[in-house]
Amino acid sequence: MSTRSVRPSEEDAETPELTAVQAALAAEHAAVYGYGLLGGRLDGKRGGEARAAYDGHRARRDALARSVRDLGGRSVASDAAYALPFAVADASSAVRLAAVLEDRIAGAYADLVRAAEGARRKEAAGALREAAVRSARWRGGNVAFPGLAERAAGADPDATGPVEAAGADGAR
């Protein structure tokens, strides 16, 4: 899912913390979209896990929007649709997408941990931990450094690379 570039306007220069909060917010927008899509392909226990993750990402998204306002910024808006890193046609690919979403969320929160201080840093660390745990559950295993896997040399670009925002018709 896309965590599109968040650039401040020239007259409204953002702090590194606000930029990281905006990037995490953009990642949460993408995760909410992704879970909305993949949830329809999962049932039973996995479907329940997807619904819980969807609700959790919505809550984090809303909290980040408040944080942006608290920092004096204007929240980055969600895109109408996002291009997926691969087709999600069945439960297996839905589970794979969930793991990718959580890896990308972990990356955004790792950046926020680095940029923030105090309570916001603690919240970001908690969100990073939650994303790492969900990713491990979806994947059936974990990674050595959650949130940093997409920066590793030799990482699979299909699994961890950026995905561009798509128009309503799905075209880039």
From TrEMBL:
Domain of life, source organism: Bacteria
Record-linked Pfam families: DUF4439 (PF14530)
Matches recorded under Gene3D superfamilies: 1.20.1260.10
Domain DUF4439: residue ranges: 20-150
Annotated region (Disordered), positions in chain: 151-172
Name under which the protein is recorded: DUF4439 domain-containing protein
